[in-house]
Amino acid sequence: MELILWAFLPFLPAFIVFPFYKNVMKSGRTALSIWQQAILLIYQINLYLLFVEGFFFVLIPVLIAGLFAPNKRSFFHAQGSFWAKIFLRAIGVKVSVEGEENIPPGPAIYVQDVRSYLDGAATLAYLPFAFRFVFQRHLFGVTFFGWLERLAGYLALEPDALDLMHDDVVRILKTLGRKENIVAFAEQGNVHGGVALFSIHSKLPVVTIRIKHDLSSPPVSAFLARPLPVSIRLSIGQPITSGKYSGDKTSLQMLSQDISRGLNPTK
């Protein structure tokens, strides 16, 4: 018990400055006074401390246990889903899923739009099936996090990878051939052309996941005592089959447009 109390002692300043911190964030001022800068610094230090403590008390034990797990990929996905759910609840984010009846009985290619960096955590925590994320390749070059992504079995994809002989494309098609689900991201509504390519050549449907929330950035009370209520809704669309498309450039563009309309039905 004493160890837990000492672990949370460094966060005491955050509880003290919290009311002032909210006012600083609401002011939206670019030129901050020394007092306001001090409040922000305390907040940033506490975020860093929380990250360090989370690393030692959660991540390291999970990594060690994962090394001895019979199915490492399933183990890390389950752990990631569990801790993502804990994280979202801790910072006051409520997630709901609608359209679960649209989930195909077999494997599929899921495409999700992105509105904040919490969207990936919401997907990991609340989608009711196992899957592998597809990230842009440059993210795998980030120190340590790239190693974690590879350890979890996530897949890399170059922005311009549209060649069936490209290593990233070959690897993803092999994954789909093993009847595994993948989740790709459409940042700012831009669907990677490879998604249509994967669907046509794997003969698997594409399912869109729209993100609906009142959140443009994480709540300012994240990691503090009084979280602000924020809701995220994952809306799963109807499967888009690729049977009527061929593998030529025009068909790829048409399928990509259909996927984009699934993410942005008002356009």
Automatic annotation (TrEMBL):
The UniProt keyword set, sorted, is:
Acyltransferase, Membrane, Transferase, Transmembrane, Transmembrane helix
What GO terms are given for molecular function?
1-acylglycerol-3-phosphate O-acyltransferase activity
Q: Which SUPFAM superfamilies match?
A: Glycerol-3-phosphate (1)-acyltransferase (SSF69593)
Q: Boundaries of each Phospholipid/glycerol acyltransferase domain copy?
A: 94-190
Give the species. candidate division WOR-1 bacterium RIFCSPHIGHO2_01_FULL_53_15
Q: Which residues cross the membrane?
A: 6-24, 45-69
Q: What is this protein called?
A: Phospholipid/glycerol acyltransferase domain-containing protein
Identify one Pfam family in the record: Acyltransferase
The answer to whether UniProt assigns keyword Nucleus to this entry is: no
The organism's place on the tree of life at top rank: Bacteria
**Which Gene Ontology BP annotations are present?**
phosphatidic acid biosynthetic process
Note the PANTHER family from the entry. 1-ACYL-SN-GLYCEROL-3-PHOSPHATE ACYLTRANSFERASE, PHOSPHOLIPID_GLYCEROL ACYLTRANSFERASE DOMAIN-CONTAINING PROTEIN
